[in-house]
Amino acid sequence: MIMARGTDDQLLLPVNPLFLWFSLFAALVFNMLPFGRVAAMPDVLALTLVFWNVHQPRRVGIGAAFVFGLLMDVHQGSVLGQHAQAYTLLSFLAITVHRRLLWFSLVEQALQILPLFIASHAVSLIVRLLSSGSFPGWTLLLAPLFEAMMWPVVTILLLAPQRRAPDRDEQRPL
Amino acid sequence: MPLGTLDRRPPPLFHQGPSALTRLVIFSALALFLMAADTRFAITRPLRAGLAVVLLPIERALQMPFDMAGAGAEYVRGLQAAQADLNKASVKLVAQSERASRVEELTAENNRLRALIDLKPALPVRSVAAGVLYEASDPFSRKIFIDRGATHGVVPGAPVIDEAGVLGQVTRVYPMSSEVTLLVDKEAAIPVLNTRTRQRSAAFGADGSSLELRFMAGNSDVKVGDLLQTSGVDGIYPPGIDVARVTKVDPRADSAFARIALQPTASADGVRHVLVLEPVAMQLPPRPDAEAEAATAAASSGKGAKPGAKGTKK
């Protein structure tokens, strides 16, 4: 349905489910890029999951977050269930705040999203320290900060297809 | 786009399924169960192997741009650099072939001597060459993934080496790939032999970048620069492969043990090709069955036969 939301009273087109799942898959692939082992690396998949949980809670729910978490666990060779647990919690919190969040500006949204990412990384850390992983260093604290800072960018990118004109003409080809 | 294609249905009032809190509880319980099952009972192995097979094509495809970037950089470096590399390699080859011929002579002599004094011949080591798929980006552990798995004969526990020394050990085997835990991982441990003093000890992964030699007395004879090799007593690693060098010895006053830091000789950063060895124990003759042996001993005790002489020999 067309809805006006947030401070900009723009009407949004309905989301294309293909684009939604493609963006999640692309985020998974981005997370799997072999950049090496950096504790402060932002988790793009978590960010995309939170985005769709907030914007389309009826399509992307906790179950999807759980499955993507399992895939990340297998890819990284970590304890099966570590990412699944973190993403499940993240998704629950995102669905809890989704009605309130969209009435704020993007920067205020990022500030409200930050505690979610901190909680998710804390869950990962606790699980790994309990199952005998080594502490990766304090740069781990930067990861949720980077993720929150990427929130406006991700919002603009992922909402762009829904902001297109419903009737394209010469002036608005897109 | 005509407006008729838009989704105009109102959100469902009653059919929303279980509440978010219920789902959180269900999936958290499932995740906790998986964690316990994965760490304690190893019953999640098929699930993990299945997902790994699904993810493998993506991982291989993602490796390609990085390989191509490497190849492009090589190409740009040009002919001169390639020739310099070639010269360096041929010098190294000459040095090694001289050594190799000596080694062959020594091996032959060693075999003759072993035959003379009736020792069992040393075990041959079988190996599988593998390429590195990627290093796990998990900041809590040190693991790499290689492109050889159960279908190529890789078994769990197999040692993995590169040209500089021991790299780690295979910890999980998937059908087409395997996970190698590096020696510097906190979970890893390896029995070592100090080549200078011939003293055996055990090295453990410390903080993800170095190893430490534990349970060595504060006054033990370990010096900075000592080379540690595999001792070969564990039934996994063949003897005489370089493991690490001692970088720091700190005889702590507050403890009975010294704090000894080691630098592994093989660096996991930038390693592209590794060799997966077969665990030595798999080539040993099977252990004699304890019950059968006790029965034989009981049966033949009247005749005074030696029970230990009935080992299965190759």
Topology:
The complex is a heterodimer of chains A (174) and B (314).
Chain A: H1 17-32, H2 44-55, H3 62-76, H4 82-101, H5 106-130, H6 142-159
Chain B: H1 20-41, H2 45-116, E1 127-135, E2 143-146, E3 159-162, E4 165-173, E5 178-182, E6 189-194, E7 200-205, E8 211-213, E9 227-230, E10 242-250, E11 259-264, E12 273-277, H3 290-300
Antiparallel strand pairs in B: 1-2, 1-12, 2-5, 3-4, 3-12, 4-5, 6-7, 6-9, 7-8, 8-11, 9-10, 10-11
Could you give the order of the helices and strands of chain A? HHHHHH
Fraction of residues in β-strands of chain B? 15-25%
State the separation between the terminal residues of chain B, measured CA to CA: 79 Å
Q: Which structural class fits the helix and strand makeup of chain A?
A: mainly alpha
| Largest protein-protein interface | A-B, 54 and 52 residues
Number of E-state strands of chain A: 0
Fraction of residues of chain B in helices? 25-40%
Could you say how many structural domains of chain A there are in total? 1
